[in-house]
Structure formats: C-alpha cells, structure tokens
Amino acid sequence: MAEKCETGSWKTIKLKINGKGYNLRFGDDVEPWESPAYDVYPWDTLAHTLRERLGLTGTKVACDNGACGSCTVLMNGNPILSCSTLTVDCDGQAITTIEGLGNPVTGELHPIQQAFIDHHGAQCGFCIPGMILSSKALLDRHPHPTEEEVKEGLSGNLCRCGNYSLILKSVMAAAETIRRKG
Amino acid sequence: MAEKHRVLGTNRPRVDAALKVTGRATYLHDIRLPDMLECKLLKSPYAHARILDIDTKEAEKLAGVRGVLTYKDVSQTPIRAHNSPHHTYRVLPKEVFYVGEQVAAVAAETKEVAMDALELIKVTYEPLPAVFDPIDAMKPDAPLMYPDMPDNLSPSNFPIETSRGDIVKGFKDADIILESRYTVGVQAHNCLDAHGTVCKWDGDELTIWSSTKFIWSILDKVCEIMGMPETKVKVIAPFVGGDFGSKAGQIETMQAVICATFAKRTGRPVRLQFTREEEIALTYHSVGPFIYDTRGGVKREGGRPTAIDLVLHSSQGAHNISGLEAPYVGSGAVAVYRFDSCRFVGYPAYCNHNMTGSRRGYGDPEGFWCSEQFVDELAEAVEMDPVEWRMKWVIRQGDPTATRLVWGEFAGGDYPLLLKKGAELFGWKEKWKGWGKPVAVDGPKRRGVGVALAQHLSGVNNEMGVVRVNVDGSVDILSHAEEVGQGIRTAMPMCIAEVLGVSPEVVRVSQANTEFVPRGFGVYASRGTPLIIGAAIKAAKDARRQLLERAARVLKVTPEDLETEDGRIFIKTEPDKGMTLQKAASVFGRVGVYGVGYEEVPHYNPETGMPLWEKSNGALYAEVEVDVETGEVTVPMVVSVADAGVVIHPELAKAQIDCSIIWGIGYALYEDEIYDRRNQGRVMNVQMVDYKIPTFFDRTNFVSVVISDPDHAPTPPLHMKGLGENAMVPVAPGIANAIYNAIGVRIKNHPVTPEKILKGLGKI
Fold first, then answer.
1. Domain, as residue range, for A154
2. B21 at A interface, C-beta within 8 A
C-alpha cells in the first residue's frame, strides 16, 4: 500500500506493464476531472487504471464483481482479477495484459493467440483476452495439461457464447505448439 | 443443387480473429472520446408507481455533476415494440411498471460521482397495486397496468389463436386423452458485453455508437422520439460482445436519447454503460414465465395422434419490447407432427416484473419444452419407442405447418433423416431399454436417455444488399451485418467470393453505419444467413451480370458465353481469351460496378400459392446421469443433428450447435430469474455469482452434426438456412425426457433443479 511520504506529498506507484515501466502519480486531494489530476486514486481498480488511464482496453470488464474472469491479467505471471484488485496494491509489480503477448515489433503472435485464430476459439470475443491470459498462466505452470486440467485451469473464465469446445481445442493445440518449440 | 463450391464449405480463420485475440477488437465498452461524460440511471424501487415529483436540486449541486434528466426533460413518446401496435416503454417515464425501471439519469465527470448524485435525487412516488402472475393478471379484480388494455391483455392482438382440422372430432377419435401442465421460467441473456451507448454531436448532427444487433431500429426510434430527420443521425455498431436476442434496439434507444440529450446540453460526448445488475434486472429477458395447459389424444393403433390443444398463459413482463410475438412463435410447437387436429390459444398478459423480449429461439425453447415432453407422454401411453413414434408422425415435405400462426407448407427439411442420423450416432437402439427402465443404475446414480425434435423459423422480413466491385478488383459489401459473435462478417465475404469468382481475402464488409449501408433489419430471427447474406448474394449476382455485360462488349461475345474464376472473366470455349475482373470493373471509366439485391421470406409455392415454411430443423439425443440422493444432474452425452441447407463454414456452423447445447444445458438445469413476489417482484439473482451460466464443466461429450441435405434444400439464393437458434430449442426437452427415463418422475416445471427432482422423488 502506497503511503504518504514524510514530506507530505503522495507517493508514486511504479508498475511494469508488458515490460514497460510506468510511474503513476497517486493521490486524492485533486478531483479526477481537475488539472493536474492524479493517475491513480485510492479507489481505482487495476482494470480501471489499465483501461481508462493507460488506454489498454484489451482487458475487458464484464461482471465487475470477480465472477466471470473477463478482466484476468497476469501479475508476476499469476492470473488475477483486475476488476477486484486495487491499483495501489500493485505497486512495484509486473503486469501482463493481452497487449503484452506476442512480439509487438515483428507482429508475431504468442502460440496461444495463434491457436485461438487457427481453431476459432473466439466468437463474440469478449472473454478471450482473459481466457488467453488464464491459459498462459496455466501452460507456463503445466506445459502438458490434460483436457480435464485445462477445464479446471480455466474454470474461472466464463464464455457466454458457450464456445468451450473450441477454446479447449485451441488451448490443447497451443500446448502442443509450445512443446514442439521447446 | 449439388453444385461444386470453391469457397463455401472451407474453414477459413474468422476475419475478426486476429483483432479479438490481441485485444484490439473495439467494442462499445472500449470507445473513449475526449472529454467524455459518464452517465448513470436512478431506478424504481417499486413494481408499480406513479411519479408525483422529482427533486434534482441537491444532485445537480454535487461537484462533478453536469446534468440530471427526468421525465420533465425528455419526450414521452414511447419506444416502439416490434410486431405490436402497443407501445409502453419510455425513455424516462412518469409511471414505472417494474423494480429497476429507470426514473432519472445523471451525467457527471466520473461514474463514481454520477452514482453519488443518484442518492441525492428525491423522488415522490405514489405506489400502485401490482400483479406478478399471468393468470392472476387476467382476473377481474387484478390491478390494471395500462388503461387501454382490459384484463392486462393487449386488445389488438387478442385472442392469439390458430387451429387446423376438427378438434372436437380429434378428441372423440382418441383412445387415450392426456392432460398436462408445463411451466417455463425465464432466461437472462447475460451477455458479457453489457448494453452501452456513446453519443456525440457535431453541430446539429448526432452520432450514436451502440452495442446493438439492430442499428436501423435505433435510428428509427431515436428519430421519432427526438423529432429528427434520418439525415441528421447516424448509428454505428462496433463489435458486439454477445447478443442472443438482447440488443434489438429498444434499450439502446433509451440509452441513446439520454446520452444525446446530455451531450446536446453539455456540448460533450456522453457514455452510458450498464453494470451487470442493470444488464440482468433493467433490460429484458426471454418472454415468460409461460404456463402451458396441454391436452392431447392418440389412438392405440399405431399411436396415431388425433388432437392436441395448447392453452398458453404467458407473462410479457412490464413491457414486451418485441411485441407479443413469442407466443406466436411458440405456437409452432403444435405444427411439427401430423396431428389430425390441433388448436393453440395464447393469453399474453402484462405483469409488474422486468421486461421481456427476444432471446435465442424466441418462444420455441418454451413451446418445445412443453410439446416435446408431451408427445413423449403420448408415446408412452401407447407404449411406443419415442424415436419410432416421432419417426412415424413427424411432418414431411409438403405437410401443413405453421409459423407465427400462419399455415403453409413444410419445405426444405427432412426430419426422419435427422432422427435416423442422430439415433445412429447416439446408439439409441442399444441404450433405450423401454419406458420406466433407466439405461443404467449404479448406487444412487441413474442414467437415462431422451430425444427431442426442434424447429425455428429461418429468417423474417426482407433485406437490401449492395455490393461494389472496385476498380482494383477488390469487393466491398455495404451492409449493417452486425457482428455479435456469430461470424456473419466471416461468412458473408465467402458467399460473395463464391458468386463473383474472387478470393474471399479481397472482399470486405463495411462498417455497420446507417449513413451508408442499405436499409435493413437486424441480425435476429436466424435471418443473418438467409436474408442479410441472401440479399448480398443477389447483389453480387447483379454485379456479376454487369461485369459480364461489360466484358462481353469488349470481347465481342454475349454475356452467356462468359465464365468467372480466380478474379478473371473468360470465354467458356476459349479460356485463354478474357480479362480480369479488375479490368471489367474499370473498363468504361473508373467507377467500378454496383450490384443491388433484394431478398425476402417466405418464398411461396407457385402452384398452391401457399407460403413455403423453410425452417431450421433439428433432432437431439441426450443422456443424463441423475443422483437420486442429491438431485444433481450431469449430461455426459448429447448428439445434436441440425439441418443448415448449404453450409458456409463447417467449423463455425458446428460451433453454433455446440454452443446451443451449452445454452440448453444451462436453460434446462439452472438458468432462471428468481422473482421476490413478496417484495415488489424484484429479481433476486442479478449478479454473475447468483445468476449462474454454464462453465467449462458443462462441456462434456457433444456430437454436433450439421447436415447439408441437397434433396431437401431450401430455395435460392444459395440454399442456406439460419442455425444458431434452432439448435437451442430441443436441448432442454431432450434432457427433461432423459431425466424422466432415469428417475421415472417427470419434472414439468422448468428448470429441472435438484430441489425439484428431490421433491418429485418424495425425498423433501
């Protein structure tokens, strides 16, 4: 938790997002619509900071209540629900969002993203960023999952289209690609 | 009909896949305009109340608030319902009809400030008596919701009735007559992408971005309510994160009028984005609850069905945004079998719970929940295998059938083929042990199997299509074709490429923007494929005709001598002689070629003049395991066979069936909005944690088969049918029939929860 420094000014929150460092000004004594507003207010969720402050709208908010998994991002490689995590609690942490997967310079996609394209994992697509990040966390830990383990690993991510068959197929195919690439 | 296709039937990647897996697909949720204000709604705590006054002074004074709107600030012109002359829903009403109906709106610098301001608005209500049950609503002493509707029934649509044959004789002929009451709850669409709208003015021109499947609906309604000409408003649909029937324009219009009014007053863009609670409790759900009183007769001899009589009481909620059509559609349930006689009567009553409207299958999941269980009851009464009974008595090509109460000829389908194919894949003969005999018993676990048929209309109304062949040989389809996840923007270029003989890679679908796409309807009623794509196909054929005429003039032959392939036009007999499509498009001045097409349903039988009801058809087999100690049901296997005419994209078509099974499992076993009737009829399960939707664990062993049946294909343009709704229809009754087979107790009240099973078994 960021606290007031001894000088009385507010602390800076440092985040590393998709490999890039951000120094975010934190405080609450200026209204968000006044100038100069703070980057982060004490009540801001990580999802809010990513989407509204930093323009990283790839992270989706569907239930805003920690129940659907759409807002999943990785903190130090672990999946977290960004709608239910305060930004101030992320100080000093490394965050990966959907924009951070693949190679932004070459445009090469992460094998999971490619598998979701090849096997039609996305329908409406709203759950997909969260689904892909949960899959990444799963495959980073369990490179050889069974279908049951994938279901278990992604059970916190809901797809209202119900495209679970093809999502499962996509993740299994991605695991295979990653294994082959070593 | 057995044409060879070049592009149709291939599994290309979705055109939107790369955007969606990288987080770059823009949904309404992601639209940020500079200086944009956020908007929030104050909602009614009463099921029925008159608003005597609203004091907004304190709210307006709060720092960061930029405006408050009430009924005093917006037009009281109702937002039109489809298919109904009766319109009751208003942007900000003077009288509220359900808990959660909007009464005031705040625009503020942040949504947090807007929410704080809501608490400072003082509303003086005069609470009025309310009614929550569709049968109670028709009683003489019931509180009246709308003064122009006696008995709370819409006068202009009542009675909803249709019949065929002599029903009195039908019952007289019967050896066995059965009666049953089936009830059906309501399903929330619960799209992950909740309704949202952004409005912005440029001078006197208004732009509306909305999460919608029906841009033209919003345009019409906003123009009517705000008194604006169409040329001053444009409506744009970005990617839509799920629809399932929920985004037909009425909710979006309410949002748009509020946002546009604030935007006009403040000179700033305004956004209104719904929360999950609003998505479930404020917007509409499937029409219902439904109560079906069913009576039917059969002869012992061959199980001949002599009569079926369905009387439906259905709640329309406080407002039915899609008119009274769901009971009409649900009436199709009496028209799938060769009953000697049938009758359907519907009483759609308004009640003081949240709104109702279209939802995947629209009336048919409800109708078939009842009818497909009821015909099992009839088959059991005559001791026939339920598959054999269906095989024997299901309608064939040319038999009378009805859509929305209109009788016509059944066309473009083959139920026995679907039944047979499904039975083979499922292993019905090996599994079915007979009535009252579960497939297997293992301790408290009982396995059972069930079957159900389904139909749903494939498209309604008409549609215009425009295709432009550009001077570089690429092709633009000008179309609203709202992409709600179904894949229409992937399928459409494939069909146009097929017609024009080009690669689908050079075909693009325009933005869904009312400013420049041809007028049409939305992506509902399984009409995207047969009508929106159908009209575009006709437009492509028109463009192709013009291109051939141009090429023929240059090549000094007749257009009939020419063929197209791989972006080239050539003389059939001399394939070396020809020109590129690009050349033909630019040969007489660089203006390209515009093709225009028009498509409508139904088509008619030229001989009899009767409508040809080319519906989507399906057959489903389900196996369930019921734990008689806990009442828990799992669905280890489902086989669903659907008839799609010619299949555009096999993988996406199959996914529509798979996803329908997932939807059907949730619908059969647990999805239902729960009303607290002692507390103003409020919806109690308004969050994802309370209103449960299927997860990965509902995905078990599904075998989804899309049949392309050339002998019974529907009429042109490309012999295609809608698919995404029909496949949802047989799932819940198929599962319910399997549960009955497993435990010997028929649960007639949807959904089949563990509690109902244990009650049925006499355990609680």
1. 111-181
2. yes
Does some domain include residue A175? yes
pLDDT at A4 over 70: no
DSSP-derived secondary structure for B543-584: HHHHHHHHHHHHHTS-GGGEEEETTEEEETTEEEEEEEHHHH
Domains of chain B, first to last: 38-128+195-273 (3.90.1170.50), 285-458+608-760 (3.30.365.10), 460-600 (3.30.365.10)
**CA of A52: which chain B residue's CA is closest?**
B32
Question: Which residue positions in chain B have pLDDT lower than 50?
Answer: 1-2
Question: Within an 8 Å CB–CB cutoff, is residue B487 touching chain A?
Answer: yes
Question: Which of B17, B23, B241 is nearest residue A117 as measured by Cβ atoms?
Answer: B17
For B185-269, list the strands marked E by DSSP.
Answer: 196-202, 205-210, 233-237
- A124/B242 CB distance under 8 A: yes
Q: What is the pLDDT of residue A8?
A: 47
| Mean pLDDT, rounded, of chain B | 94
Would you state the pLDDT for residue B324?
66
Comparing CA positions, the residue from B668, B21, B730 lying closest to residue A163 is B21
Does A89 lie in the same domain as A25?
yes
8 Å CB contact between B128 and B56: no
ipTM: 0.96
Q: Do residues A85 and A131 share a domain?
A: no
**Which pLDDT score is estimated for B82?**
83
Per residue in A13-66, pLDDT (tens digit) is 999 999 999 999 999 999 999 999 999 999 999 999 999 999 999 999 999 999
Are β-strands B574-580 and B400-403 bridged in parallel, bridged antiparallel, or unpaired? unpaired
Closest partner residue to B27 (CB to CB) among A126, A161, A162 is A126
Query: Within a domain: residue A7?
Result: no
Name the band, by pLDDT with cuts 50, 70 and 90, for residue A2: very low
Main-chain dihedrals φ then ψ at residue A24, nearest 5 degrees = -105, 130
Domain end, chosen from A57, A74, A98, is at: A98
| CATH code (residue A73) | 3.10.20.30
Q: Percent of chain B beyond pLDDT 70?
A: 97
**Cα distance from A55 to chain B (closest Cα, Å)?**
9
